[in-house]
Write a structure and sequence with these properties.
By secondary structure, the protein is mostly helical. The protein has a domain of 142 residues: Rossmann fold. The protein has nine helices and six strands; from the N terminus they run E-H-H-H-H-E-E-H-E-E-H-H-E-H-H. A two-stranded parallel ribbon has the order 1-4. It has a two-stranded parallel ribbon with strand order 2-6. Strands 3-5 form a two-stranded antiparallel ribbon. It is elongated.
Length: 241
């Protein structure tokens, strides 16, 4: 009889490491080259559409006033209402984009920098393969930790997610520092209630698993995240009949 234990339950002693100062997001890097040109084009198009909409509303005031049975002066409230709607929706849209377009992680704790707490992340795909190995070899018995045997940081998960989505959109790869500078990763203050209780490092000891004859390599965070993100992107994309 065999039992499989997930990697998070197998906490190995973390390697000795000096306290790392918490890295803070730097100021936004200025756009360069093609990114600057694209940004200018997008902003110009958005401004043009706002001016166009306002112009259409101005030209339509007489017709609107006639349809509503009000004076032209009262009809100008259409322009005011349009401007107020823009004043509310534009900053709100920007806030929502920032709020839901960012990856949020814990700030540093236990001597680890922001987002640098480490886990032995293991994919469901690999867990299934391990279970099938024991199904095919019923004579094997014992308790086996399942993990990659390689701890990686939450920053690794975040940047892998960001870059998979960027590649799907035709954008260039970003390093961690660049993602921080662009505000794509945000660090939330570490909760006081978790200080001294949070496991900042876990890593599975897979020696027994390897000794039981399981020799398949495990997916890295980068490979596993990319596969899963691509699956989600493909599932969410519209399909033709």
């Amino acid at each position: 009889m065999s039992a499989v234990q997930a990697a998070d339950g197998a906490a190995a002693s973390p390697p000795a490491r000096p306290a790392v100062p918490a890295a803070r997001p730097t100021a936004f890097a200025p756009l360069q080259g093609g990114e600057r040109a694209l940004g200018t084009l997008v902003l110009s198009l958005a401004t043009f559409m706002t001016v166009l909409d306002t112009s259409i509303a101005n030209v339509s005031i007489p017709a609107i006033s006639g349809d509503l049975g009000v004076s032209p002066n009262q009809g100008t409230w259409v322009i005011t209402s349009f401007a107020v709607a823009n004043a509310i929706s534009v900053p709100l849209t920007g806030w929502l984009t920032q709020r839901f377009g960012q990856v949020r992680l814990f700030a540093g704790s236990g001597g680890y920098g922001d987002g640098e707490q480490r886990r032995d992340f293991v994919s469901v795909e690999d867990c299934i393969k391990v279970n099938l190995h024991f199904l095919d070899n019923p004579e094997l018995s014992g308790i086996f930790n399942v993990g990659t045997g390689r701890a990686q940081s939450f920053n690794d998960v975040a940047i892998a997610t960001i870059n998979t989505c960027r590649r799907a959109s035709g954008l260039e790869h970003l390093g961690l520092d660049a993602a921080r500078a662009q505000g794509l990763i945000e660090y939330a203050p570490f909760p006081e209630a978790l200080k001294g209780k949070y496991q900042n490092f876990t890593q599975a000891d897979v020696g027994a698993l390897r000794g039981a004859g399981y020799a398949e390599p495990f997916l890295t965070v980068e490979d596993g995240v990319e596969r899963y993100c691509r699956y989600l992107l493909e599932e969410s994309s519209p399909r033709g009949d």
